[in-house]
Amino acid sequence: MYQSIHRLYHHHCLSKIFQPVNLKPKDSNVKKDEPMSLSQKLLVETGIISLRSNGMFALLPLGQRILKKLMMIIDEEMISVSAQRLTLPLLTSADLWKITGRWNSTGQELLSLQDRHNREYVLSPTHEEAITSLLRDVYPLSFRQLPLKLYQITSKFRDEMKPRFGLIRCREFVMKDLYTFDESEAKAIETYSEICNAYDKIFQRIGVPFIKVAGDCGNIGGSFSHEYHYQAVIGEDTLLVCHGCQEATNAQLLSDSVNAVCSKCGSDMATITGIEVGHTFLLGTKYSEPLGGCYQNKQGKPEAAHMGCYGVGLTRVMAAVVEVLTTSDNIIWPWEIAPFKVCIIGPKEGSLEAGVTRWVNHLAKVLSSLPGYEDDIVVDDRHRLTIGKRVLEARRTGYPYIVVVGKKAQEDVPMFELIHTTTDESCYLSHHMLITHMRGAAQNK
Ligand SMILES: [Zn+2]
């Protein structure tokens, strides 16, 4: 019993969190002419990520919290479509990639290595070969068990010629990849549209406006695909969006993109740039035929499964939402994935108002017990620093709300400053009003 009450009142203290703020990239790791994006600069300077070598970043504890929240959204939406999570090895036998032809077609972006027996492996950028060989090896899997939907959330590798923009285009990144197996093309299309709906929900829950476009199948192949993009100046994909009906497409699909006219309504299309954060593909039997990825059909015979594959770049989402929402040196996080939702700051030790410090832990307890704030309250308990300095850091890191326990907490009716960093509004509220306000804030998200 005590345990559960104790858990309910849990909050975090910034003094105990490893967050190396203002960590500048070392010159040896960044070439002078490397383009720097806003998200790269801010995520490094606020100690959320750290550049470890060219195109490779450590996700520090705050970055880990953001990643975990993205994973939770994805896991919940995957459960709702009966997809099951697994983990495949990061290394895939090169033999499988030779069978599908991608060993050669992927080119130098493919990272590979040899083990002590001189066997070759791919440090996988994607797992179509690996998952299809799994289906092959567990044969016979009955048609009754289809559709089968398997996904993982793991590190992926791509040996970019020029890694850039931090987590937007790096060499090691975290991706969620889902693979589906069906009996027929018709059933695979049903599954495809079910998963696309789940993807719409994932991006709706992240809460940043996104654009879904007909996509380019590229090196993955297959019959059709859709891409999910965030509109951003640094985006590397050119998209055409219809002024009339909002229909959108990747410009790579059109041979003449100069005078593009919407195929649905005939209106002119605007050209914008996007960061691709999700991609869905209907693959057909492109992988199951050559790799023997078969299920057992009604007649008891092996038959190649009709596949789909679906990716979300989690670390890329982390950076891309910053590119979309942030306009100054203060990060704006979407509510659902902010590293903490509220940062509480008390008076500097030895200051005249130091007597009100007791309110800090009290507010942390009360706020932690409100629905939507469990485990999401952090106290900046570095009391040797001024309130101003800590508010500045909290704004830069992008906690949606900052509560300041300062001078006005000494009044007969103690007043607390509430700063909503997302809108840059602030006001003074009594204890009761503060709790009411925060309860409402969580409900309206
Ligand atoms: Zn249109």
UniProtKB/TrEMBL annotation:
Pfam families, alphabetized: HGTP_anticodon, tRNA-synt_2b
Reaction(s) this enzyme catalyzes, per UniProt: tRNA(Pro) + L-proline + ATP = L-prolyl-tRNA(Pro) + AMP + diphosphate
Enzyme Commission number: 6.1.1.15
GO cellular component, as recorded: mitochondrion
UniProt cross-references to CDD domains, sorted A to Z: ProRS_core_prok
Domain Aminoacyl-transfer RNA synthetases class-II family profile intervals: 33-334
One Gene Ontology MF term: proline-tRNA ligase activity
Signal peptide residue numbers: none
Stated name of the protein: Probable proline--tRNA ligase, mitochondrial
Species the sequence originates in: Petrolisthes cinctipes (Flat porcelain crab)
Organism placement in taxonomy: Eukaryota, Metazoa, Ecdysozoa, Arthropoda, Crustacea
